[in-house]
Amino acid sequence: MEYVTAVPHPRTESAESGETAEAARRSRRSLGIALLFGAVGAAVALLASRQEWCSGVAAVAGGELPLSAKGSDVTGVPAALAVVGLAALVAVFAVRKAGRILVAALLALSGAGAVAAAVLGADDSSALDDKAAQASGDAATTIDALSHTAWPYVAAAGGALILIAGILAVIYGAAWPSMGGRYERSGAPRPRKAKPIDPDRPEDLWKALDRGEDPTGA
After folding, report:
1. Is-contact 151 74, C-beta < 8 A?
2. For a 10 Å CB count at each end of the chain, is N or C smaller?
3. What does the pLDDT average to over 96-113?
């Protein structure tokens, strides 16, 4: 009885080149999304931190005093982490290997921290209480008719975009180009260009013959 052994077919060059092209497309796509999300997320978080997050009324002598607090009054963490995330996004292209992974992780953590700080500050009224105490001169003064805006959640959305950019950098960052990589030397000796042969100089003719070249150019 004869046994027939199945021999696996070798992968064709077209299949390998197709996979390489697909990997290159994924790399370019992830790079574009990370740059867009990181830049837009940082801009959104910074913008939202400058807007009014909450407002209320403080009872002071002679009546009521309306007060409001911006995001930067409530917490400066989202704006600070947005700046850190933007710097990390740029630094991803300046480092390689383990350094790139660390910077990408910092980018992701910046986004996560901005989200957490913005969500925690959405219901925070301590900034308004401090303003009420300063306006009335009584540390026990608090805010009445407290209301909150949607800007803290806009800041959280900006942080989420930075987080996504960081996750993409961690997963696909190893295949992204490096800053100034095209100007680096590969270490291989550069081929020396042969000087043009002058037919009127016998020494050039002999040197060309020694190199195995045809000095006549035929």
Report:
1. no
2. N
3. 93
- Residue 150 is predicted with a pLDDT of 95
pLDDT in tens, 39-82: 999 999 999 999 999 988 887 776 778 888 999 999 999 999 99
pTM over 0.85, yes/no: no
Q: What is the CA radius of gyration of the chain?
A: 32
Which residue is it, tokens 């740029």? Answer: 90
Q: In the structure encoding, which two tokens stand for residue 23, read together?
A: 């990997």
Which are the contacts of 14, defined by CB distance < 8 A and separation ≥ 6?
none
Token match 């975009």: residue?
161
CA dihedral 126→127→128→131, nearest 10 degrees, is 120
DSSP state of 97: H
Local structure of residue 198 (DSSP, 8 states): -
Give the HSE-up count for residue 98: Cα atoms under 13 Å, Cβ half-sphere. 0
DSSP 8-class letter at 212: T
